[in-house]
Amino acid sequence: MNKSFKEFLITAEPLNVEILSSLLWELNIDGISEEINCIKVFTHDQSINESNIRDALDQLKKNNLIRNYEVQENVLYEKNWNEEWEKSREVIRITERILIKPTFKQYGPQPNEIVITLDPKMSFGTGDHPTTKICINFLEKNITPKMKVLDVGSGTAILSIVAAKLGASKVIAFDIDEWSFENGSENIKLNQVSEIVEVRMCELIDIKENDFDLIVANIQRNILIDLSEGLRNKLNKEGILILSGLLESDREEIISKYSSMGFNEIELMKIEDWIGIVMKKKE
């Protein structure tokens, strides 16, 4: 039996994607897709319903950030997700070297190119979201051979696969979501990096390993705030921390929190309204 998930189609006046996304990410959702005249919100959490979405949007209306809105709730199935995804997916070039292609597309790589084959199913992380692109760019700049990497909230495991292909010797990918665990495990095998990448379904507190050379976390701001101490403790003294899943409006709060945890901002990247930050522990 195909697993179901929910899709919410949201229109608003004005359709400010940054403001809407920032609020909706506070809910237990898996992804947001920006369309021409609406946004689509996806979640496998059956407890989230149209009423929850309306309550969130009423906050924006009360604060005069939107004038009005409409919400439509649909129930979809994993098969529908794959079909919709396949209709619009092409080979995506993330950097000069790194490309992502769906399983059903053919591509002959050029010398020195890294091609990631991805079957996204339900998990967030298809490669075309700005924060995924930001993280891949940062991984390409910062991964060195033999690194030990932790991928926090790994979803499709795309970032773990990239890290392995760039030369990491050990990658632990974890997510609290069963679908992410299943999909990530499939994608690891598909890209022949099973000997390097281990996928787990757990929380950060369950990861007993530490002294990671690099940690990448592409998740919501509130979770990054909650995990700040845990991430610091898992990173070695010279380690690199890559944070994304963030809007530009989140930057001040994230920098303030992580600075108090002993980190300095090293680099910032912005694509559209989304940002990613590279941080290192203060000397």
* pLDDT averaged residue by residue: 88
* Helical stretch tally: 9
CATH class of the largest domain: Alpha Beta
* Largest sheet geometry: 7 strands, mixed
Overall helicity? 25-40%
| Broad structural category | alpha/beta
Strand tally: 14
Q: How much strand?
A: 25-35%
Low-confidence stretches: none
- CATH topology-level name of the largest domain: Rossmann fold
Could you characterize the architecture of this molecule?
The longest helix is centred in the N-terminal third of the chain and has 13 residues. The chain has nine helices and 14 strands. The chain is 31% helix and 33% strand. The strands form three sheets. Strands 10-9-8-11-12-14-13 form a seven-stranded mixed β-sheet, with helices on both faces. It is an alpha/beta fold and 283 residues long. Helix 1 packs across helix 2 and helix 4 runs parallel beside helix 5. It has two domains: 80 residues, Alpha-Beta Plaits (2-Layer Sandwich), CATH 3.30.70.1280; 193 residues, Rossmann fold (3-Layer(aba) Sandwich), CATH 3.40.50.150. The mean pLDDT is 88.
What's the short story on this structure?
The chain is of the alpha/beta class and 283 residues long.
Topology readout:
Layout: E1 4-13, H1 17-24, E2 31-34, E3 39-43, H2 50-62, E4 68-77, H3 78-88, E5 92-93, E6 98-102, E7 114-118, H4 130-142, E8 148-152, H5 158-165, E9 170-175, H6 178-190, E10 197-201, E11 212-218, H7 221-226, H8 228-234, E12 235-247, H9 251-260, E13 263-271, E14 274-281
Helix pairs in contact: 1-2, 4-5
